[in-house]
Amino acid sequence: MNRERPTDIAKGLGILLVVAGHTIASWNSGHELLYKFIYSFHMPFFLGSGGMYIRADGPLVAFIKAKLIRLVVPFISWSLFYLCLAFFIQAIKNDLGTPTFGFAPKLLTVLLHGDWYSLDATGIYVDLWFLPALFSTVIITRLLAKWSDSQGLIASLGYCYLLSFSIVLFNDLLGSRPFSYWGIDIALASLPFVYLCKLRNYFYRVTPYFIFPLIVVVCMFSRTQEVSLAVLKISNYGSFIISASLGIILLFAISAWIQDWKIGRILGMLGERSYLVFLMAGAILTISGPARRMLWSVNDDFSNIISFFVVLVTAFFAYPLVASSVPLAFLAFGAKNSLQKQP
Fold first, then answer.
1. Which of 53, 331, 333, 337 is least crowded, fewest Cβ atoms below 10 Å from its Cβ?
2. Which residue range(s) make up the domain with 161?
3. Number of domains observed in the structure of the chain
């Protein structure tokens, strides 16, 4: 399958927002409006784009096997990596004598639950929640593929908006998340974004004159909500669905507009590597922590900006090194060979 340059550019823009959301505009950075803007649509975009190429063709078993390799294998290997990193940091602190670490039980907890809470409880990079949620999203999308083909994209989008609202409302009324295992409820709530991304060819045609108004509208609606898709906490579902949907359209519109620019080519390369950038961000931020804390004492924003570029540059240039090794490529992003592109 040939890659779409605007889609790669959109992923490049998206990963810039992800890294910025963990550094420049993190929840404690003091930039609340920018934080809300980014979090209103960056993860809906990546969950949606992960399922936008899925069709009803081919055997289901083969599809599931392929996604197990692409998403579950990296989830396991990165969980092991981050757990070992936590163990190593604890060793440096001379705290190995405490009985609270429990390497095997913590790993088992993460693999059984596959959610933000289990990752947080074990000290593993919490943003790995995305991989189980994406796995659930693509499997559900594949199971619904024949149904969506019969309904058409627009009707499927409408039905999935209703499903998304129902899941969020059900969790709120229940006061718990019975379908939180491996992000199943996150996947169900994010299904409309899959079908929205499938309509990307329409959004590529959005004239550049509408880009600024789209930014303004997304900003307006993102201000009225608190969103944490990782734990499916949405304070204002109506505002969220508008800002998330328009934010996705905005990314595709910008990407088509700049695809022939030099910055577009650079962002396209970043988009091809976005998977590894996302997965490596936690390790880079952890390892560079002491240096960042020294900068923090000078200026918070300066430290965050440095962290932003450190993560992007390090992960970007680490990609070819990882991809050049068949075992590393398989463990890091589920590639069957060193030349296979990320999902």
1. 337
2. 55-247
3. 1
The half-sphere exposure of 305 on its side-chain side, counting CA atoms within 13 A, is 5
Give the residue, 88 or 271, on which the prediction is more confident. Answer: 271
CA-nearest of 24, 49, 183, 191 to 118 is 183
How many CB atoms are closer than 10 A to CB 299? 11
Q: Tell me how crowded residue 81 is: count the other CB atoms within 10 A of its CB.
A: 20
pLDDT band, very low/low/confident/very high, at 289 (cuts 50, 70, 90): low
Q: d(Cα 75, Cα 205) in Å, to the nearest integer?
A: 36
Report yes or no on whether pTM surpasses 0.85: yes
Q: Do the domain assignments include residue 3?
A: no
Distance CA 55, CA 159 (A): 18
Q: Which two tokens stand for residue 239?
A: 């505002």
DSSP-derived 3-state class of residue 297: coil
Q: How many residues does the chain have?
A: 343
Q: What is the largest CA-CA distance in the chain?
A: 62
User: How far lies 265's CA from each of 4, 20, 112, 254, 260, in Å?
Assistant: 12, 20, 40, 13, 7
pLDDT in tens, 12-44: 999 999 999 888 887 777 788 999 999 999 999
- Three-state SS for 300? helix
Spatial contact of 164 and 190, defined as CB atoms under 8 Å apart:
yes
Residue-wise pLDDT tens digits, 176-194: 899 999 999 999 999 999 9
- Is the residue at 81 inside a domain? yes
Per-residue confidence (pLDDT) for residue 306, from 0 to 100: 84
Whether 222 is in a domain gets the answer: yes
The amino acid sitting at 110 is V
From residue 38, give the alpha-carbon distance in Å to each of 42, 213, 250: 6, 16, 12
Whether 163 has a pLDDT exceeding 80, the answer reads: yes
Distance from C-alpha of 253 to C-alpha of 209, rounded to nearest angstrom: 10
In a domain, 50, yes or no: no
Which residues have CB under 8 Å from 201's CB, separation 6+?
Answer: none
